[in-house]
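## retry 2 of 3
previous attempt timed out at serialization; input unchanged, resubmitting
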Amino acid sequence: MKRLESKRMVLRPWRIEDLDDLHQCTSDEQVAKFAGFNVRQTKKETLKILKQFIGDSLKSLWAIELKKDKKDIGWIELYNQSNDLNMNSKELGFVLSQEYWGKGLMTEAVKLVLNYVFNIKKVNSIICSHFLKNIRSRNVITKCGFKFIINDSSKCYYYLSKN
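## retry succeeded, writing output
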């Protein structure tokens, strides 16, 4: 994926040197609960995920690096929807380390990606979702202009189009 940059962060491919930062994020129970993944107990478990992330960085996944301390604080992913009938539509997902919640960083990262996909990649629409109790993700999603579509028993879904 193309490297993206703002005043406070860089969105870039994952590297093997990111293991400690990724483990800090994936071993956090609160982060895992709100993002819907299992807590990684060991760095060996996290290393397996990191290797997958490195491969996925080529097409759909960015590490979010905070410029001021060169620390990875989460990730953002743009991927094809599994049930995507519109081939020019993508789905967006994101995860942020707990110590960075509430600072506007994920909103900034999402806006960087939206600008890139709408203006450079010429994607027509984006879907984004969050688990029902994940109010922080809801706030990011709505601040970035997404409109609520529907919810099911576990998630709320939102839509944003280029127009």
